[in-house]
Write a structure and sequence with these properties.
Length: 476
Amino acid sequence: MDIQKLGNLLKTGETICVEFKRAGDGAKNDTFETICSFLNRMGGDILLGVSDDGKVIGIPPNSVEQIIRNIINVTNDSNLLTPSFYVYPEAISYQDKTIIHIHVPQSSDVHRFKGICYDRVHEADVKVTSTEQIAQMYIRKQGIFTERKIYPFIKKDDLRLDLLPKVRNLAASKNPEHPWCSMNDDELLRSAKLISRDYQNNTDVLCGAAILLLGKDSVIQDMFPAYKTDAILRRVNVDRYDDRITVMTNLIESYESLVAFGCKHLSDKFFLENGIKINLREKILREMIGNVLIHREYSSARPARFIIEKNQMFTDNANKALNHGIITLQNLCPISKNPIIASFFNQIGRADELGSGVRNLYKYVKLYSGAEPVFNEEDVFKLTIPLDDEYSPEAGKRSEKTTEKTTEKTTEKTTEKILRLVKATPTITTARLAEECGISIDGVDWQIRKLRKMGRLTREGGDRGGRWVVIDEPSK
């Protein structure tokens, strides 16, 4: 939650998907009733420490950590919120006061708090007691989410349960105290909502999300015969391809294969953010591949694609469009197409809060390519990322902070220093050059590409065991 979006919520006031709570002495039942109703309707945002009229009251700073811990404990307790659901409250400083923001996504399940089902109607949380009304909620959710479709004859033997240790390790990497780490296989599947309740036959069954996330390859192809993701490189042979893989396995291993394909063919660029070295390529691929796997409409016969070209890369996939046209930061209204899969990816650290992927891509693509991504939502969702191997985030950062004249002088000095160092030590590494010149490795790569284009530098041999050769400029 950024400050601008927070300010907009406060100005807009309470709506069907925005709720304010004072919560000065902690989160009470009405907070969890709202969480329940948001899960059952279309999701929303809860702000604790704000009065009904949008005035920021604030939370006592010494109570913030305890309130957040209590919210996490209650929403993870299946005896209170059924089925349990993981939310991640965050403390935000606004106008010198602390408030707590809780983003609640739309759930593919029907939830109850303390045995009571709540729905969101206008700005109120309404108890739903009628059997017919509750049945309609189940019907509505199963009609929206393909992943919710149940398969009564699929058994746990049809799943790759050998992947669950990896799932626990990934969850623990994000949160060392993650509940999945102490659960057995059956408990984990239920917690992840991969086991659903067939109320017509009063039995527990596996849903489509379980098959897609953990199914054996043969089972996935039987249940979703059109399911596959083509990853294609087209740079030299644009009529066909230079490299290609077809991924038809579970979503956990599909993610790994597609990210590895991207890493194989994309430039590795780094950026220093708040003193931490950020791998821009990995940041972009995480969001891009996560998006094409999480939000795809799996009932469609159209395969998904991940294509890398010379000046751009893109993904496209079948989509159940809720909005149409170009998505920007200004009109972003995130709605999860497969909330069970989205939540699962969130738990294992391969996705973040709904909507964060768009914001992250706008941020990191600008650093990676010097341009902005394009999100086009229609019946086929297409995400396009511009590519520019010559663009350097290090060079871009310098040009913003200095005048053009100063930048040229600084770049010229760095160029000459690299030539001197390479001439003295032809086997010098880019890491050592970066250290000697006081710039990033990516900055060194940018300089080397420039020198090779100028004809001042060439390479003999491979990356290992090779050497640099400086070509002196002809005397004038």
